[in-house]
Amino acid sequence: MTPSTAPTGSQPKSTRKQGLGSSHEILTCTIKAPPYSYAHLELSTDYGGPDDVELDILQVRSYCTAALRQFLGLTGMAISVDILKVEGNECWVRVPRPDLGSFVAAITAWKGTSEGATHYALRVKQRRAYFFQLSGSSRLNTRSIHQTGSTFTPGSMRAQPKRIALDGPSGSSRLNLPRSIRQMMGSTFMPGGSMRAQSKRIETTFTIAMDDSYDYNILGEIDPNDLYEEMTRHTREVCKLLQILSSSQESHVETHLADVLVRLVFSSNIIENAGAGWDVTFKLCQAIFRGEEMPNEIDERDSEYAAIKQDLLRKGLAAGTEFVLRSRREIIQHAKAASYIINELYLGGKDVSEDIILETHRILTHKVDTEQGISWTEYSGVYRHDSVCAGLTSFVDSGLVRSTMRQMMASMNRDLEKAAEAQEIDPVAFSVKYCHTLVNIHPFMDGNGRACRLVLNAILLKYGGIMVSFGEEGGDREQYLNIAVRASQRESSQRDDFDDDDPLAPKHYRELASYTLGHVTASMRRLVQALNIKN
């Protein structure tokens, strides 16, 4: 459902922040006992393994944690490790000076891990009291260590991972997303049906608990209470199964997660009549989620071009070259936007912010003009400047979009603070509430629905350990759209009747919460099945 809009007006000019003045005062001091020591590590593989294998920051963290846990127990889990740099198959780390010997001993004794047919282990190349003494240290920018590194304590996994660099304006990355999610799940699923997540810069373990945000009629004979009980039971199962995975099972789980991610993109595009058919979507998304580069353009002789054209003709849509390339771009950018927001919120431990939402939308709509012919350069990653409506539903006035977005973020932060204080959260209701709020602000000229569902899934993964797809089948698509339209109409009719966070304000997203809960429970059920597959 794409709202009809007029071209945007002039955009407000950005204001450059004033830099801090540099000081010329010379300070001198002598450090007799430096607080840190440094180690240079290398990833090694067994005979016959790939020679060009590369480390990523999540692997370093996972491998170090495994070694410290196995050989030093609680003592090792308390050691703070700073990952300063990861380059190729090498990495440089910093640990408190008194812990260097124990850290090196644990890494040396650790036998490594198997992934598929290859065995991987870390090897200590050097250990030094001073950073500059390490070989390769000249390639590192020591001034940016605190900005680009990752600090974690294995016992609490209070990680601040380095954000995967996005290459260029289209949002490409080298991140193997299914593997990274699988690795992260091992430290976020906790015993007793709880989840560990970094919220408001604090690592918190949240008990998953149902709140009162559900509708008890929309699912017919199915009781949301029963669904929630099943979901939390599966959450406990997932926690246990993640601890005993073999290398072949890890591969099965990554394949399952890749399929979930593809379906997330495919179904969200279907809802908006965007993208192309399953085969093309699967091929493009699989490559992007593995971190592979995709060519920006294809020509008419390419089999991919022919497949997309056939999909468009089957839907009764225009199928010229312009529309084929647009459909392909809608898939690629959607997958890249999903990678970005999941990397930021789940893998990177960040909270939802306006900047992250804007960047997600910018990647999602890169080089995708609206159906009304408005250039992507005018609306991509910027709040709209014109009024929009969909059917009988009118959304927030364009002049209030920015302030309403800030109100939404303030409300979300208050909810997270309450959840952290209670150490309890309902990830389904929480994610649905702000998906509903965001889509009814409708902050962008186009792409609002897809952006909102990406936000929902990233929040749901962060606090619930799961992702969902809506509307893949025809009947499911119609049910989702009907629920969303009813919720938006109610929201629009009572928008000015209640203040923010008024406890008496009606929860217009109740039907959507119950609908989403059904999909979450089914998705969690399939995850358990994937974890149980044995060769």
From TrEMBL:
Biased composition (Polar residues): 1-13
Pfam families in the cross-refs: Fic (PF02661), Pop8 (PF20976)
Domain (Fido): residue spans on this chain: 352-518
Residues that coordinate or bind ATP: 446-453
InterPro entries: Fido, Fido-like_dom_sf, Fido_containing, Pop8-like_dom
One function term, GO molecular function aspect: ATP binding
Keyword Phosphoprotein in annotation: no
The entry's keywords: ATP-binding, Nucleotide-binding
Start and end residues of each stretch annotated as Disordered: 1-22, 149-169
Active site annotation, chain numbering: 442
Cross-referenced PANTHER family: FIDO DOMAIN-CONTAINING PROTEIN, FIDO DOMAIN-CONTAINING PROTEIN DDB_G0283145
Full protein name: Fido domain-containing protein
